Structures are given as structure tokens and as C-alpha cells.
Amino acid sequence: MDELRCDIAILGAGPAGLAAALGAAASGRKVTLLDDNPVPGGQIWRDGPGVSLPKTARKLRAAVSENPNIRVLNGARFIACPQPRTLQYERGHDSGILHWRRLILCCGARELQLPFPGWTLPGVTGAGGLQALLKQGLSVAGERIVIAGSGPLLLATAASVRQAGGKVVAIIEQTPLHRALKFGAGLWRWPEKVRQLVGLADYRWRPASQVSAALGDDRLTAVRIRHAGGERELTCDRLATGYGLIPNIEPALLFGCPLTGTAIAVDDYQQTGIPDIFAAGECTGVGGSELALAEGTIAGYAAAGDVARARSGFARRERWRRFARAAESAFTLTPQLGEICTPESLLCRCEEVATGAIGDAPDWYNAKMQHRCGMGACQGRICGAAARWLWGWPLSVPREPLSPTRIDTLANTPPPDNSE
Amino acid sequence: MTQTISLTIDGVAITVVDGTSVAAALSLTSFPAARLSISGQPRPPFCGMGVCQECRITIDGRRRLACQTPCRAGMRVEREAELRSEKHG
């Protein structure tokens, strides 16, 4: 087991984490960036055989890898905090402990998935999931693909499918047309986003509609679509669903950081409610890579004590926070989506607990204790978030280890030390 | 220009472009599932980003997530025997 030390540890190497690392290292602090993917970049800048990364991403990654004050631990998953101011991590073939003086949480976001009949069939993936798999080298040439859920990510996934030679059958968006149009009309304030969206426009985009079932015997063959005019079926080979992004807050909950809504609460300097712990990017509220970069830079400078340079980023952050608020209100989920989560639909994929089975549980704790919901390998990352949307149950403080962990890693865990 | 590498999935040799993840490589086999659910349903990769744990699989003797593991030359990927005999054999 490795034992490493640094001034500032950063958890997550997406846009926020990379920007935070450069900000924190600028004043000579020793920075360690910990990330569970094989290479830095997070979800949006995921590298792979099917990817041509944008210039900003390439520049940032190069700057981080050339900076002598920054150490990057790739493929390292955060699993526990066995002693104060530590991160215990596991990699493919080893594990270690990282000691830090200050910590910046840049844990990003994941897709919200809502259960519906057939969503565990082979052929159904997340929308961001399909995009990630395409970047990782998945071939979909000639396949008919339906993309469903909500938000701009559906259009980005459709663009990736077209680029990979797949056929986009339809993009099923739950938000009504008037909300999407209002969002589009206000986009002139962010010309960068207009350019992005023009490139993503797709005539198969259908507002005010929902996927109500994935159909097929041992794999997906069609989907059922619900819209104002009624229901219809579309033949397809794949379905990719995603109901927008939700902040990854589990590490923050473990450290006791207070939340605001579903995100980590931070002050002007990206400081959380816990001393010496900062947070930036999607885990403090979903807003896209531009906002994550602005917040990461501020957090990096602030964690290194460079208040003046941290302040100089406030205006840029505010501009992208306004964009985040506009996007959020445009793609607010309609309560009608609750109707597609039929009682038979599996809520917990790991333990195969149906949505109807836990309808009488008063809270998440009882759903776990009485029905084993959220007790499987993903530890409720998928179904806990769905249950929060369906019934308003907050995500609970996770238990260590935060992810399935090998026995040799656990055997190497140092004993608790509360001397600090 | 593009480099390819060879690995085995359930003992069958396959060739992929360098940088391909094990999750993406599974789709090149006759059935793309990574594992069986507790009731025996086949489950392929779902979230693609290390969250849902559906793609956990044995790689060189250790349980890993296929979506966060790049293919390496000579790598041995193995699925549960039941899945192999049912869908892949």
C-alpha cells in the first residue's frame, strides 16, 4: 500500500478538477489529483478511440501533466476516509492513502435514471452512458437508436450516434416545446452555447413526449412512446435514456459538508461548510463545463490562499451561473414522469426490487432495511437518486467503503486515528 | 495509423483498436452482457461511467468495472460460466 502526502488533494479530474489543480499549483503548493477513470478529463472530456478532444481540454490536460507541482493518480477510486484528512483509494492492482491539508471536491455529476418497464433489457443504456461507450470505442454503425429523457445532453448523444454511423430514430424530450423555445430565445447571452446548439440541432427531436416502455424478449426490439396524441411504438436496436444530471454528493456527505438542495453548499470562494474542504463544478450544482472551469479555478486559488486571484474569477462564474439557472428551468422534469415508473418496474437494478414493492416504506432507510433496495453493488447510486425524485427522500450519508472494494485493500486499511 | 491489440474474452481472441474499453469490447462478442443479475437476467454495461456497477467482470483474475478498464494486449476477460454456456458457447 502506498502512503502519499500533499498540500492540496483534488477529488475528480474533470474540467473543475483540472482547473482547480492548475490554480492551486500556481503558488507552489503540492497538488495531487485523484480520479477513477483511466485518463483525466471527466465525463465531458472523456478520451478514447472515438474522440477528438476540444482544444481547451487538450491544453488543460497538457498543462496539468507538465506541471511539476501536480501529481495525477488515474484509475484510483476513492473508497474511504480512515483517518482525518485522508483519502483511501483503490486502483486496478494496488491501493493507497493520500494525506492532505486541504481538499477540493470536484466529483462531477451523474445521470438521473428513472425506472420504467423494460429498462434492464440488453440494448438499453444511459444517454450519457451510450455517449461514454461510443467514446470508449463501441460500434453502432447501422443500428437504429432512440434517445430519450431530458436536456441538452440528449442532443449531444444524438450527434455522437450520427458521427459513429448509427441511425437516430427519435429524440424523445419530456419538456414542452414552449419551455425549450424560451430557453433557446435567451441563448444570445451565451454565444458559445448558440454555436454548440446549432451544431446539435436534429429534426427528429420530439418535445413533450416520454418513453413509457422498452420492449423485447431477451433484448430490446422496440420502445413505446407517450405524447399528447396518444401512444405509439418505434422499432429500434438501442434505447439511451437520461433525465438530466444530478450532482455527485456522496463524498461530501461522508465528510459532513452541508448541502443546498441536491448540491454541495459553497461560499463565494467555493469553500464548503467544513473547514479546509472546498468544492467546485457539477457537484456544487449542474451548469456545464464553462461553469465548472470558472469554479475550479476559483477553488484552486482559494485553497492555496491566493484570495486576489480567486476574486478575479467571480464575474466569469456569475455569467455561467445565469446560464445554469436558465437551463435548469427549461428542463424541469414533469411530475407525469412518475406514471411511467409502474409498480412492476425494477427500481433497484442490483437487488431487483420493484418500484411497487417499496411504495409503503416511509423513507429510504426502511426501503433498504425491509426490501433490500439500494443494498447491492452500486450502493443505491442509481435507485437512491430515482427514489429521491419519486418520493422526495434525501440521499443518505454513505457508508465506507464507498464502492465495492477488494479484500486486500480492506486488509491494508490503517486503524482509525482520531488524535487530531 | 490506428494501433490494434488482441485480448481474450471467455477464451476467444478478439482484436480492438488501442484505447477501447473492455465494456465496448464486450459488444464485439456474440452477446454483450457482462454478467447475470441475481435472478439470472443478462446485464450489459449501462451507465458507462463507473456508477451503476452493472459491468463488473473478471479481468486478469480480479473483479473490475469494464467501463473504466482499457483493453490491454494479452488481457484475459472472463464472464460467469452460466452466461457463457447460455449465450456465448
Task: Detail the topology: elements first, then pairings.
The complex is a heterodimer of chains A (420) and B (89).
Chain A: E1 2-5, E2 8-11, H1 15-25, E3 31-34, H2 55-66, E4 70-73, E5 77-80, E6 86-90, E7 95-99, E8 102-105, E9 109-111, E10 124-126, H3 127-135, E11 144-150, H4 153-163, E12 167-173, H5 177-185, H6 191-200, E13 205-206, E14 209-216, E15 220-227, E16 230-235, E17 238-243, E18 245-247, H7 250-255, E19 259-260, E20 263-264, E21 277-279, H8 289-303, H9 307-311, H10 314-330, E22 346-348, E23 353-354, H11 364-371, H12 383-391, H13 407-411
Chain B: E1 4-9, E2 12-17, H1 22-26, E3 35-36, E4 42-43, E5 56-59, E6 62-65, E7 76-78, H2 81-88
Q: Main traits of this protein?
A:
heterodimer, A: 420 residues, 5-stranded parallel sheet, 23 strands, 24% strand, B: alpha+beta, two-stranded antiparallel ribbon, 2 helices
What would you say about this model in short?
By secondary structure, chain A is of the alpha/beta class. Chain A contains 13 helices and 23 strands.
Would you mind describing this structure in some detail?
The complex is a heterodimer of chains A (420) and B (89). In chain A, 30% of the residues lie in helices and 24% in strands. Chain A has helices spanning 15-25, 55-66, 127-135, 153-163, 177-185, 191-200, 250-255, 289-303, 307-311, 314-330, 364-371, 383-391, 407-411, and strands at 2-5, 8-11, 31-34, 70-73, 77-80, 86-90, 95-99, 102-105, 109-111, 124-126, 144-150, 167-173, 205-206, 209-216, 220-227, 230-235, 238-243, 245-247, 259-260, 263-264, 277-279, 346-348, 353-354. In chain A, helix 1 packs across helix 2 (55-66), helix 1 (15-25) runs parallel beside helix 8 and helix 8 runs antiparallel to helix 10 (314-330). The longest helix of chain A is centred in the C-terminal third of the chain and has 17 residues, at 314-330. Chain B is an alpha+beta fold and 89 residues long. Chain B is built from 2 helices and 7 strands; from the N terminus they run ββαβββββα. In chain B, strands 2-1-7-5-6 form a 5-stranded mixed sheet. The model of chain B has no long low-confidence stretch (mean pLDDT 91). Classes of the chains: A alpha/beta (420), B alpha+beta (89). The interface between A and B is large, with 43 and 40 residues.
